[in-house]
Design goal:
The protein is of the alpha/beta class. The chain has 13 helices and 14 strands. Helices cover 33% and strands 17% of the residues. The protein has a six-stranded parallel beta sheet, with helices on both faces. A three-stranded parallel beta sheet has the order 1-3-2, sandwiched between helices. The protein has a three-stranded antiparallel beta sheet with strand order 10-9-11. α10 packs across α11.
Length: 332
């Protein structure tokens, strides 16, 4: 529409393996829209690039998390990000729901000093989330970060799967065998999470069987036959059928994370079966996270069969848990 667009975003954190340059992101974006990459987030080179923009042009600045002040919003108008951008731009637009749970300068501080708006994608995401009836929502909780699910255990009916389902069983005193050791090694704060779960399982349905890898192949074992010498990779068929019945009755559904190890096709059954049941639900359905989005692609289920598919992780989880999102609050 003739605007001069300056894109700021982040990838990873300093000191972590996923903290990278955004140059490759710019190359990918150029397949869809012409955009120039500037290899610094703030500084003289970035300033000249912004001032040199013509109507209809766009630039992507280097990873904003390369600026220490990104993590210091408390500095207010003395923050280096504020001091750099405010004199150079006219309007701030946040079009990323997935960062709205973060209290960082580019998300919550810039809107205090510039006319600010929600972008079309952010607006669409929030509008979709308002359709879900949280009080009567069925939660299907899986994925590789079970500790994140603790904040959702506040009374809603929960179908537990993935590593979360296994932790729930351990919290109930069940020994899983080889999987116990795996979980202790993989889950941050394992013992603390298990202890917290003990008083929160009243409304949580747990798996009744699992699929393990035996000699490279899928084999299903009833819960009563655990502990097992084999590690768990998926829920079993009885659990799938049990959960499908609950899904059919639900008025609204929030599904977070896969039910099993979808990277191996023979252990994607649980996730794909549950997704199919969710897609047939008459209630509003919310799917959260990139792994489930990928699984939907594999399943060939039309995306229109789901109420809303979100790529957001932490922001969506916080929203569903009823927490205020600093990024949204900053736009008020």
């Amino acid at each position: 529409k003739g605007a001069k667009v300056v894109v700021i975003t982040h990838q990873g954190r300093k000191g972590e393996g996923d903290f990278t340059s955004l140059e490759q992101h710019a190359k990918l974006l150029n397949k869809f829209a012409k955009i120039k990459f500037v290899d610094e987030p703030i500084g003289e080179k970035a300033r000249k690039a912004i001032q040199g923009l013509k109507e209809g042009e766009a630039i992507l600045l280097e990873n904003i998390r390369g600026v220490d002040d990104e993590f210091k919003p408390e500095k207010g108008e003395e923050n280096e990000i504020v001091k750099f951008f405010v004199p150079l731009v006219n309007v701030y637009v946040n079009d990323s729901f997935s960062v709205c749970h973060r209290e960082q300068a580019s998300i919550t501080l810039l809107p205090k000093f510039l006319p600010s708006f929600a972008g079309r994608l952010l607006e669409k995401e929030v509008s979709a989330l308002k359709r879900i009836k949280m009080g009567e929502c069925l939660y299907i909780l899986g994925g590789a970060k079970p500790e994140d699910n603790l904040k959702l255990l506040r009374g809603n009916k929960v179908l537990a799967c993935g590593l979360f389902g296994q932790l729930c069983l351990i919290a109930k005193g069940k020994k899983l065998g080889a999987q116990d050791k795996y979980l202790q090694e993989q889950i941050k704060g394992f013992y603390k999470v298990v202890e917290e779960l003990k008083g929160k399982l009243k409304n949580v349905e747990i798996p009744v069987d699992f699929a393990v890898k035996k000699n490279g192949n899928r084999e299903e074992i009833l819960l009563e036959n655990f502990p097992s010498e084999y590690e768990i990779f998926d829920i079993g068929k009885r659990t799938m059928a049990k959960y499908a019945k609950q899904i059919k009755k639900a008025k609204s559904i929030y599904m977070k994370g896969p039910a099993g190890f979808c990277a191996d096709a023979q252990f994607s059954n649980g996730t794909l079966t549950i997704l199919k049941a969710v897609s047939e639900s008459k209630g509003f359905t919310l799917i959260g996270g990139g792994h489930l989005s990928d699984a939907i692609e594999v399943s060939k289920i039309p995306k229109e069969k789901f109420g809303h598919i979100s790529l957001s992780g932490g922001a969506l989880l916080s929203y569903v848990a009823g927490e205020k999102l600093p990024g949204l609050e900053a736009l008020q």
